[in-house]
């Protein structure tokens, strides 16, 4: 599918596997396909190309989870509360600009 220019993985591990699959299929990351993950695991900066990812402050996430759990234990019938954490985009080498494709380069051949 030459019209696909980017993939966003549910997490970094999925994104890294998608990137490896694209490379095995002969695609160049990021020239042919940009790949981005979510959670900024240590491996994200060590793969080639280094994975662009959304980083979440794990300490803040853990504190929020504990706070929500404590509230639920203290008041089991209370309304549910949603916590929203702001991720940070960490740009590395797995993303680039959208490739320019002409009609002839996008044609599918058998």
Give the key terms.
single chain, 110 residues, alpha/beta, four-stranded mixed beta sheet, 4 strands
Structure description:
This protein is an alpha/beta fold. Helices cover 31% and strands 14% of the residues. The protein contains 3 helices and 4 strands; from the N terminus they run βαββαβα. Strands 1-2-3-4 form a 4-stranded mixed beta sheet, with helices on one face. Helix 1 links the parallel strand 1 and strand 2. The two termini are 13 Å apart. The model has no long low-confidence stretch (mean pLDDT 90).
Short account of what is shown:
The protein has helices spanning 12-24, 58-74, 103-106; strands at 6-8, 34-38, 52-55, 88-90. It is α/β, with parallel strands linked by helices and 110 residues long. The model has no long low-confidence stretch (mean pLDDT 90).
- Portion in helices: 25-40%
Cross-sheet strand order for the largest sheet? 1-2-3-4
Total number of strands? 4
What's the average pLDDT?
Answer: 90
**Uncertain regions: pLDDT < 50 for 5+ in a row?**
none
Task: Tell me the strand percentage band.
Answer: 5-15%
Shape: elongated
Please summarize the sheet with the most strands. 4 strands, mixed
The topology string of helices and strands comes to EHEEHEH
């Amino acid at each position: 599918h030459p019209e696909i220019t980017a993939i966003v993985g549910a997490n970094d591990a999925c994104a890294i596997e998608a990137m490896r699959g694209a490379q095995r299929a002969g695609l160049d990351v990021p020239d042919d396909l940009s790949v981005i993950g979510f959670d900024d695991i240590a491996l994200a900066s060590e793969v080639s190309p280094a994975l662009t990812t959304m980083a979440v402050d794990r300490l803040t996430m853990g504190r929020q989870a504990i706070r929500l759990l404590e509230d639920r234990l203290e008041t089991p019938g209370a309304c549910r509360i949603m916590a929203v954490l702001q991720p940070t985009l960490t740009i590395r080498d797995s993303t680039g600009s959208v490739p320019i494709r002409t009609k002839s380069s996008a044609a599918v051949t058998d």
